[in-house]
Amino acid sequence: MSRGTGRGYYSSVMTFVPEAQLQAYVLALLRKELKHLSPGDFQVEKRFKLRIGHHEDDYDGAALWEAEGRADLLVLHGKRPLALFELKREDKTLSEDHVGQGRSYAAQLLDRPPLVIVSNGKETWVRQASNGEPLDPGLDGADFAEKLFSNIGKVAASNLAWAIEMLMGPETTIWVEAVRARTDALIEQLTGDPDDARLPYGRDLLFGRRATVDILSMLNDGAKAVVLEGAPLSGKSNVLRDLARLTRSSPDWAMLMINAATAGAGLFQRIANLFEATLEWSLSPQEVRTWLRRMSRSNRKPALILAVDGVAPGSAVASDLEELAETGFGDALRLVLSTDRADTILRGANGRTPGALEPVAKVIEVDLLDDQEFQYVREAIAPARLFFYDGAELSQEYRRPWVLRAALAAGSIPDDEDIAAFIPASMGLKFVQTARQHLSKVGGDTARLFRLLARDALADGGEVSDALALTQANALVVRRDAFGPASDAAATALAAQGWVKGSRHHGGEDIVVIRAPEFLVSELASELATRVSERLADGAETAATELLWQSQRFFLGDLIGACAIVDLAARQRALPLELLAFLMNFFPEAETMAGKLVSAEGEDGRPFYMVFDEKGWAALADANGNPLSPFERVDEGDEARSYKDMIAWMILSQLARLRSAFGDSDGDRFDFEIITHLGQCGFPLVNGGRTPMRHAIEDLGGTATVLDPGHALAEPLTAAIHKLIAEEWPSLDPFFEKVREANALPLTVRVQHALLALRNSAAPGLPAWVEAKLEDFIFPLRQEQQGAGFL
User: Domain 174-365 is classified in which CATH homologous superfamily?
Assistant: First the structure.
């Protein structure tokens, strides 16, 4: 009989039964096989709950009927579970394995039935769930049902480890939900509020990464192992979290995630510990090896992805992975591993000999967020009514996942559903203020311990490799050799609390990686304020030299330096005016790249070098400046430029966001002085040292350039003007008088861009005031400054 003809569903021989007819078909078989029970009391359920260890799962017993011709159904009699009915297609031969599988399901039901029935339509076997034996011939007559249900106690009292072992095998689909549930539980365990940096995942902060798509593409193409490599805090753990999300309902992949970031047991023991704790399935490491290989040889989908986060070179986990690769595993098991550097776990201890994993592994670099990934971030936070100001895509700081998390922690989700909150397009001092609030909430002596690290980090005058120098320019890491006894003990204590971890940098130095870099930023600023205060006794230039040198050494140095000045002013209860005057007169300079040798950090974290010829064309070079490739034009139509001595004005740009005064009247506002002085700069004051993307630049007639209106707030100075106007617009006549007196086109345009960004403000009266200020002040002033060049 062909499928779908509507005939023959209750014949003794079955070719195929549509899923909709399963219950009726099984009822017919039950009435035939269990004649002693009243036929009207039978009920057949396709969905039921299974309990494996401490976890309950809803199970769809008919999910595989269409694909594999197998269904597991729960039979009730008088509303009591009577049997686990395993129905096979008629071309399937019944075996004792089918009975065992049915018994394993029955053993994990919340209410265990006394019977297991397996049938292919031609044959039907009725067995006791407790031992798999046929029914006792004496079970007949009026008390048939009661005698059956009296056997339930035997099932409950038996050792059920065999049942879990069978359910976790590749022959069932139970293992799929079991491993996914374990992964979900681990992710939840490692998820915290955005301000709890000890946990790798921020609650409600999950965005897509290109690496996740690359992993799935490689797995689909047959890769047996994929290694994610990237610097600490680059977002490797979140890629695995995203992979778990994407495979959660996949018919092809089921992911079991293991956290290897903590020192301790090997991989097989960790899996055994996990199954013991959650599934009540006691296994030895050797039995875990056997289970993994058994799963790997399955020819059924989904395949198992074993995702291991934080594999440390030389660890017991790394050794177990190498052993697994050496002995081989089938295509139904795939490995996805994360580590700081792939070569440290793919090669032998000498760093040269290939390990067993290397031939089967593909490597994916996890780096700063690209443009598309940053857009994913914007989309991820939009439902919480959190938005970045225009221009944030230019901020290189926001391309780091840890900075994003800290910035979002500094933002606040508005209570009113009709109100949105905006995150600055460039990092500001609120970042440090929020870090200090969070650090005080942590309590204990954590702040003191971080302060000890900061003190010795600032005092570190040791030579560092080019590779580490580049890393320190882009991340907050500290040389272990810089520590004295007190800070070394502090690092050990912080590591025990989960705030830092030790690592070996590829430049050869032992380093300490900070899991909450914003805390180190806070304490670096505090300690730097102390050092600058001490040097003020020797004059403003000496103090400024210390401030600028230290700020240049660290990632987010402009924030560290600016916050140090704020801390110093708070302690002295006055602005350090001589120091600030020195900074105001420490002008940045634009220069051509002609004849220069520069270094940069490659995708593998190692430095590479570029040399520029007299025309400003660039070539790859060695560390001595010898060209290794032909010279090529860098920027079509423009001479390559860089900017030096930026740090002083970058620090002042951050200070400009704070209301400050050196006298008693609004005319004595120091933030006005900073803005009107720095605003005359003829190029964008942004971090990075190189001209921003061409599309973000507005050329002011060849005399100067600024960021264009759509990206203007990425410059901290323009962001300071924007903040000033938004907060004090009704009383800013003294400020605009200073702008007129300065009579500098770059300043006028920066103020214009800040005004344009407030055109759609929700503040009552502000949009109309902005339009009036543009028409009555900015446009006439630009006409005076540019003449016919202003349209």
Answer: P-loop containing nucleotide triphosphate hydrolases (3.40.50.300)
